[in-house]
Write a structure and sequence with these properties.
zinc; about 10% strand; Flavoprotein-like_sf; NAD(P)H_dehydrogenase_qn; Flavodoxin_fold; two-stranded antiparallel ribbon; globular; four-stranded parallel beta sheet; Rossmann fold; EC 1.10.5.1
């Protein structure tokens, strides 16, 4: 799948950079060694604050800086991985933990649609061990839209990405050679027009208001406008209603 994506994008004269985390022997564990020089508060180590300051001052470890440069240069980021335990492999999660530092990937003023990566697109491309019917609202594994919400909203959208619909390759380990070839062809075909795709629908920031407790919740007028709708707005903001179908697997209007 990675090779197919590289070939399809290079065919469009795109410049493609690959981070093969296993080949790189990427360290997925965040620690004080991610920071060069003295800590701001060595007696009370707070990773987010310390790495945020280190990013601003150019004191992050070289492997983090290298990955951040790749992200800064990217218009489209594809995350290719096998679905492990309803999520991503540990090495990829560790990549997010270390590379998406405060100040670089997000701040508490720059998040969701105002995030630093709002001009960039992102796609999850993953393979599963189960067939597609297992990941439906009636399937034993549950709705794939619910499973994807923490990654697509909690990581990608949180940092501002325009999240495109995922590319899901169902159960290739038990598929026929012909079916696997078709998965690759479908992927290459999709990438020919990926720049024209609409992102997944998320709720705009201005639909939320601050409460007395300091949190952000849907404004009353937004909630009232949905009163007669049988479905919630998104997987996350379902308002105790039915989860909207395909909210995390289809672009807007699909």
């Amino acid at each position: 799948m990675k090779d197919a994506a590289v070939a399809a994008l290079k065919k469009q004269s795109c410049e493609v950079t690959v981070s093969d985390l296993y080949a790189m022997n990427f360290n997925p564990v965040n620690s004080k060694s991610d920071i060069k020089g003295n800590l701001k508060d060595p007696n009370h180590f707070r990773y987010g604050e310390e790495t945020g300051l280190a990013y601003k001052e150019g004191r992050l470890s070289s492997d983090i800086i290298e990955e951040q440069k790749k992200l800064q240069a990217a218009d489209l980021v594809i995350f290719q991985f096998p679905f492990y335990w309803f999520s991503m492999p540990a090495i990829l999660k560790g990549w997010f933990d270390r590379v998406f530092t405060q100040g670089f990937a997000y701040s508490f003023r720059n998040m969701y649609e105002d995030g630093f990566f709002k001009e960039k697109k992102a796609i999850l491309s993953f393979t599963t061990g189960g067939v597609s019917s297992m990941y439906t609202p009636k399937g034993i594994n549950g709705d794939i839209n619910v499973v994807l919400w923490p990654i697509q909203n909690g990581i990608l959208r949180f940092c501002g990405f325009q999240v495109l619909a995922p590319q899901t390759s169902w159960c290739p380990g038990f598929a026929s050679p012909e079916a696997r070839i078709q998965m690759l062809e479908d992927w290459k075909s999709r990438l020919e027009n990926v720049w024209e795709e609409d992102p997944i629908n998320f709720i705009p920031n201005d639909h939320f208001g601050m409460t007395f407790q300091g949190g952000f919740i849907l404004k009353k007028e937004v909630e009232d406008a949905q009163a007669m709708n049988n479905y919630g707005l998104t997987v996350g903001q379902h308002m105790d209603k039915l989860i909207p179908p395909n909210n995390q697997t289809k672009g807007k209007g699909k």
